[in-house]
Amino acid sequence: MAAAASGTDPGATPIHRHLAAAWSAPASAADAIRRALVLCADHELSSSAFAVRVTASTGATLRNAVIAGLAALSGPYHGGMTERVRTFLEDPRMQSYPGFRHRLYPDGDPRGPALLENVPLLSSDATTLRAIENATGEKPSIDTALVMLERAYGLPAGAAFTLFAVGRTAGWLAHAIEQRSQSSLIRPRARYVVAEDQHSP
């Protein structure tokens, strides 16, 4: 995953240092990249983790299970949220604040502040953070923190999603390996109902 993300083989180099070098980031960015990878590694049974487990339960290869995770992660309500956040930060006059509320964390996503600690934010991003928190009390989610990290260190556009995907791959593999060891197919049942106001012609 790191090689696909950077276009070069990391070899024995730690992934966070490899990505920092591949992106020509300042040396100080490597530690923030490491934190991002760790904070993104797993998050309970997220949509992508569930997709991975369902795929692995069929006996599919680990590679195909990770592909299922990537497909789910790409959606705009999951890892694809980073693109919505970037659009917002480039024009913070939008009426909504994507990436500042996470339904699992009514008091704020703890991963956001943990990732942004000691990151030299762009002045515009710092101002946006303060303004939204003062107006709504909302704090940045991991998606917002990833994009602000990307912007702070001048990483390539899309690095936020890449960090999410590379970091989460470690968690997906753990989910897939565990699921394959159970040798049981995940197969939810569906219940068909006919709405009272819908009738066949």
Describe the fold and architecture.
- This protein is mainly alpha-helical and 201 residues long.
- Helix content is 56%, strand content 0%.
- It is built from ten helices and no strands.
- α3 runs parallel beside α10 (159-182) and α5 (62-73) crosses α10 (159-182).
- The model has no long low-confidence stretch (mean pLDDT 94).
Q: What's the total number of strands?
A: 0
Return the string of H and E elements. Answer: HHHHHHHHHH
- Calculate the terminal CA-CA distance, rounded to whole Å: 53 Å
Give the helix tally: 10
Average pLDDT, rounded to a whole number, is 94
Helix share of residues? 55-70%
Main pleated-sheet profile: none
Structural class: mainly alpha
Strand content: under 5%
- Low-confidence segments, given as residue ranges, are none
The rounded Rg comes to 19 Å
Shape type? flat
In brief:
The chain is mostly helical.
List the SSEs and their pairings.
Elements lengths: L1 H5 L8 H8 L6 H12 L6 H11 L4 H12 L7 H10 L20 H6 L6 H14 L5 H11 L6 H24 L19
Helix pairs in contact: 2-3, 3-10, 4-5, 4-10, 5-10, 6-9, 9-10
Features:
201 residues; mainly alpha; 10 helices; 0% strand
